[in-house]
Amino acid sequence: MTAPRPTVYVIDDDLSFRKAVSRLLEAAGYEVQGYSSAESFLADAPRTRKDTCVLCDVRMSGHDGIDVQRVLRERGSLLAVVFVTAYSDRHTEEQARAGGAVDFLTKPVGKDRLLGAVEQALSVAKVSLGQDPGTSASRGTRRSRL
Amino acid sequence: MHGASRRLAHPWPTCATLLVASLGVASPASSQARHVVVVYDERRDLPGLSMFDAGLVEALASSTEAVELYREEMDLSRLGADEGRLSRLRDLWREKYRDVPVDVVVPVMGPAFNFVLTHRDSLIPDAAVVFSGVSWRELEGRSLPTDATGVILQREFAPTVELALRLQPTLRRVVLVSGTSDFDRVLAAQALQELRAYEERLAITHLDDLPLSAILEEVSRLPAESAVFYSTVFQDGAGNAYVPHDVAREIATAASVPTYAFLDQYLGSGILGGHMYSLARYGQEAGRLVLSVLDGAAPSSLPVVGPAVSETLLDWRQVQRWRLDPSRIPPDAITRFRELTFWEEYRGWMVGALALVTLQSLLIAALVMQRLRQRRAEARLIESEDRFTRLADEAPVMMWKVDTERRLTFANRSWLEFVGGTLEEHEGLGWARLVHAEDLERVLEVSGLAMERREGFSFDLRVRRHDGEYRWLLCNGVPRFSDSGALLGYIGSNIDVTESREAEVEKQRATTQLAHAARVAMIGELAASVAHELNQPLGAILANAEAAEMVLDESEPALEELRAILADIRADNQRASGILDPIRHLLRKHQSEPVRVDVNALVEAILKLARIEVAARRVSLAFEPHDALPPVRGDRAQLQQVVMNLVLNGLDAMTHSPDAQRRLVVRTSNGDPGMVKISVADAGVGVRDDLLDTIFEPFYTTKEQGLGLGLSLSRTIVKAHRGRIWAENNADVGVTFHVALPDCQEPT
Questions:
Q1: Closest CA to B153 of B328, B21, B323, B281
Q2: Is-cis flag, bond preceding A108, omega within 30?
């Protein structure tokens, strides 16, 4: 067997977008774990692995994407985050980028742009993790895909 | 106080010689005139200083000699008080006044006084000094030059506390608002010191080191048993410069409790009042001293003038605004802005008017009596057809008579001129040929019914004029009876109402167009949020389509997967369409026929459309529909417009509300029988009670960008649906708008 496929955590409260983007990512060869809210993702708290990243909606009921980014940072997580939102505004984008977001995409987003951002996030994670060998392997609790 | 004044006044020896010396210098300005230089610590166009200046000018105007008045401004708040700048200022002024024989220098307020005393030797060494606006505190411990005198400024804060305690018996807390400039701090320190004497009874809070916006926020949330004391804000905690007068207005407007102040010029800007001093009076007092010095009196012989008496001043409008008990106003207080009652103001006129009315009534009574006698006499002649015809012919309206078979028996000259021809041509039922074919049946039916009931009638109909044009006439008929009570027929009149009818139709058309234009504008407001909402399904559709392409590229495309993708794309397409549905409804120009409208569904559609906007403004929205609501009949787009307008208004009203408070509740109910009610309650700023009707007037608006047409249009629309729209303030906070529409319970 080859090495495990890279995993993308997709956090979006819009079921149909989450479903569609998961299909696309899987067709492109990634593992996908979907979460319908910031809370469910943070509760699951998937450990950072070498080849993981987060694709996160910004505006969600409950905690929003910026909160996710902040909590990850506070926990010392090095997961790279790509935002994808239907409501782009400059203030939020600046906030996200200042927090270290790899990219800030606006729905609808084309395949090339999306996959490019995910690849970039994965490579960022590799670089960062090189300096942070302390992270353990995934807890192995796999949630259903959707 | 008096003792202190003596102490200062005595040690000054006479020094008139200095003054005389200065008069000998030749000057390029008028050599006859006397020269007075006023030095203001701030810019003179500040309201307080401009009032001082006015008082000074007023006093100097009574001089028998010509007085040249020069004004200099140190502008400390705006430009700062660093030594470098002040010494450059001194050099500039020295140069400026080098050849001017200045008689008196008038420094106004402490900083200017200090500046003049420090630099006078190198500035204008020979001029006498008449200061003003300087407090005892600022004079303490310094020796006054012999050729100086002035007006002491006495600021007292305690009497205002007494006033507040008297007007607000439940007062527990005083919030002192001041600024961060040197002057602000000096004043506030003194106020605080005097306030401390009340610490046992009052909680004292000091707001100074905050940005003005934060201060406004604070004072807007004070509990009822508080008062705001405003001293001055030249500069706020964020370092922004302000005109204290403007700040007074903002504080008084924002505050949830009465605002007191210490300077009479603030009265009228919304503050309640206070024990106040008047800079205009200080100007006058200083002017008087200047005149005495110019008259040759030695400054040292002129005692420092004690404090110009402060007065307790109140703004009557504010007394009413805060619902204070007028009987608690101290007897020595001066109440300004009191509008006299109608009777107080117009007593003279009213007595006159009453006399006139009485006289007129008597005259009318006399005339009526005379006319009654005349009528009785005329009654005997009234049946004379000849006389009637003559009178009727002179009448400017069309008149006619018909018998019980509705046959025309008489038409006056106006009538004949209108239709053309002679009475003979139209007698009998000939008139029916003149009536527009579409109106004839209705005319016969309505008049026939009236005749059966022996009642009068009134209707509009189109009648062919002599030139062939059909005109709209308003036709009124009253029944005639014989002495025995038998119906003889009808007598009536016609009025040409074509123009006003056209105007009415035009007005309706204009309203429809305006309503549509307003809907388009409203959609414009929502466009951004709708576009965002559309991005959700569009994003999913694109991702699905591209996923499908990738699936197709595989060696063995999974057909089931493709089918699922296509189904999802279709579902998202419908979702996008659903987002646009309410907009399509709103954009519809008009509906030709009124339709049955389910009010709950209508409100729900609007709330769906507004949902994004509501979320973007961080407002929580609740819809409380009544379960068994009967439908109404009307134009769906227009009714949606009314609801949308109320919802958007509600959101706007809460722009400045704290987040926790932002809540919009939409309710439907049918409390009144036969009516369906829609209520939209916000938790915003509310509307002044006396404006609750005015807000429905065209062009009345409180929004910066508003045209002021929304509510007025809503009223027009609701009225056209035979409904009613009104607003009332909620018991706690915000406004509720109600729309009541007649239901259409039909057995269908």
A1: B281
A2: yes
Question: Strands B226-230, B203-207: parallel, antiparallel or unpaired by DSSP?
Answer: unpaired
Phi and psi (nearest 5°) for B285? -60, -45
- Cβ contact B244:B233 at 8 Å: yes
The 10s digit of each residue's pLDDT in B649-698 is 888 888 888 878 899 999 999 878 889 999 999 998 888 888 888 788 76
Tell me the torsion sign for CA atoms B531, B534, B536, B538.
negative
Give the whole-angstrom CA distance, residue B254 versus residue B263: 19
Interface residues on A facing B, Cβ-Cβ cutoff 8 A:
14, 16-17, 19-21, 23-24, 27-28, 59, 84, 86-87, 106-111, 114
Residue B251 near residue B274, CB atoms below 8 Å: no
Output the pLDDT for position B5. Answer: 37
Q: Per residue, what are the HEC states of B243-270?
A: CHHHHHHHHHHHCCCCEEECEHHHECCC
Task: Indicate whether A144 belongs to any domain.
Answer: no
Fold of B397-496: Beta-Lactamase (3.30.450)
% of chain B with per-residue pLDDT over 70: 84
pLDDT in tens, B458-496: 888 999 999 999 998 988 888 888 877 888 888 888 888
> Which of B426, B431, B429 is closest to B473 using CA atoms?
B431
Q: Please classify residue B282 by burial: count the beta carbons closer than 10 Å to its beta carbon, then call 0-12 exposed, 13-18 middle and 19+ buried.
A: buried
Q: Which residues pair with B241 in a beta bridge?
A: B235
pLDDT of residue B350: 62
What ipTM does this complex have? Answer: 0.83
Quote the pLDDT of residue B591: 53
Instruction: Tell me the whole-structure pTM to 2 decimals.
Output: 0.39
Instruction: Flag if B536 and A109 touch (Cβ within 8 Å).
Output: no
Are B336 and B313 contacting, i.e. CB atoms less than 8 angstroms apart?
Answer: yes
DSSP β-ladder status, B203-207 and B173-177 = parallel
Q: In chain B, what residues touch A87 (CB-CB under 8 Å)?
A: 532, 535, 616
DSSP B286-335: HHHHHHHHHTT--GGGSPPB-PPPPEEEEEHHHHHHTT--GGGS-TTPEE
The residue of chain A with its CA nearest to that of B528 is A87
Q: Which two tokens stand for residue B212?
A: 């003005």
* Number of domain units in chain A: 1
Structural contact between residues B22 and B127, judged by C-beta atoms closer than 8 angstroms: yes
Q: How confident is the model at residue B379 (pLDDT cuts 50, 70, 90)?
A: low
Domain ranges of chain B: 5-154+281-301, 158-276+310-339, 351-388, 397-496, 508-742
* Cα(A110)–Cα(B545) distance, integer angstroms: 10
Q: Judge: B536–A86 Cβ closer than 8 Å, yes or no.
A: yes
Q: How far is A18 from chain B (nearest CA, A)?
A: 8
Of B543, B550, B561, the CB nearest to A17: B543
Whether the per-residue pLDDT at A4 is higher than 60: the answer is: yes
CA distance A42 to A75: 10
Give B-chain residues touching A109 at CB under 8 angstroms: 539, 542-543
Q: What is the mean pLDDT of chain B?
A: 82
Helix (H, G, I), strand (E, B) or coil at B158: helix
- Check CB contact under 8 Å for B540 and A17: yes
B543/A86 touch (CB, cutoff 8 Å), yes or no: no
The correct CATH number of B158-276+310-339 out of 1.25.40.10, 3.30.1300.10, 3.40.50.620, 3.40.50.2300 is 3.40.50.2300
Tokens 């057909």 map to which residue? B559
For residue A131, give how far its alpha carbon lies from the nearest alpha carbon of chain B (Å).
35
**Cα angle: B642, vertex B647, B651; to 5 degrees:** 145
A24·B550 Cβ contact <8 A:
yes
Q: What's the CATH architecture for B508-742?
A: 2-Layer Sandwich (3.30)
